[in-house]
Amino acid sequence: MTNVVEIIGGGIGGLAAAIALRRAGRRVTVRERDAALPATGTALALWPAALRALDAIGVGDDVRRTGVRQRSGAFLRPDGSRIAAVDLDRLHRRTGDAVFLLSRPALLAVLHRAAADAGAQLRAGEPVDGEPDADLVVAADGVFSRTRERLFGPAYRARSSGVTAWRGTLDGLATDTFAEVWGRGVKFGVTPHEGGRTNWFASAPGVFDAGDDVARLRAMFAGWAPPVRTVLAALDGSAVLRHEVFVTPALPSFTRGRVALIGDAAHAMPPDLGRGACEAIVDAVALAGHMRSAKTIGEALHGYDRERRPATQRLAGMAGAAARLTRVRHALPVRDRLLRTAMLAGPPG
Hints:
Blueprint: E1 4-8, H1 12-23, E2 27-32, E3 43-46, H2 48-56, H3 60-66, E4 68-69, E5 72-76, E6 82-85, H4 88-95, E7 100-103, H5 104-118, E8 121-124, E9 136-139, H6 146-152, E10 159-170, E11 177-182, E12 187-193, E13 197-205, H7 213-220, H8 228-234, E14 241-247, E15 255-256, E16 259-261, H9 264-267, H10 276-293, H11 297-326, H12 332-344
Parallel strand pairs: 1-2, 1-9, 2-8, 5-11, 9-16
Antiparallel strand pairs: 3-7, 4-7, 5-6, 10-13, 10-14, 11-12, 12-13, 15-16
């Protein structure tokens, strides 16, 4: 059975895969093109399914201790009135766990330390050109994955969703509550962030050129009630991150030959469900589980694809539907009813 594993990409999915595959007894090398871990980044939501996967690789408690538990959540209108609540108590009863918020740098630091402790070879500043010589290659090279394009062709390149997102963090505005405010085709959100900070994000249809993002956001969300007004008043332009949102077409398989794709390389989706990092972690642990239990690499990769492709493509469809709903500019009462109906089933765990 497979022994030598090369992982392309040392992000969240790649490091989680390194830990999981080392625990499954494999020799693992991770090659990451960046020379160092990022020093800045906004908060990621870690849902119960991801926390269970992190428990399986021995870092779940570290993540819970480092992160901030989300205590409540709501979708609001720009005047502050509520459209729908997020029933986190129901989620806890159903799954036995909560949602924790943790910044990307903090999560990467936990995973990097655990991967090193597990004995994975972590090689920073080493971009990969072509397919490494290994028994198994794990492509965790992100939304613009060269591996995906090499295996499946240019038809599966990442595509712009036609949406721009802004995000950042603020000191001195601690919160344990998720609030997402929906206007006419635009939205603004606030979540907890470790260290007593607040994480914020916004999105709007269109691709925006570089400019004064603070002025742009203040004009776009002028007159909105707190927490949006509070965040906008405190914004510093140097702390605003802006990026065009890209997604990937649904792949016919997450594997080909001896290569398995995980995370955004396999299924980059709109951020509207907050599940991208979660699914990368679950992918990694699922792949290692199949590597542990299967008799051949072909059987393991088939099992991984059969488990993870339908689940993640279903979530990508849900994220796409949520993104389209946020871009509605007319018939807002109908939109709000649809959102309330969607919340009746509770958020996916």
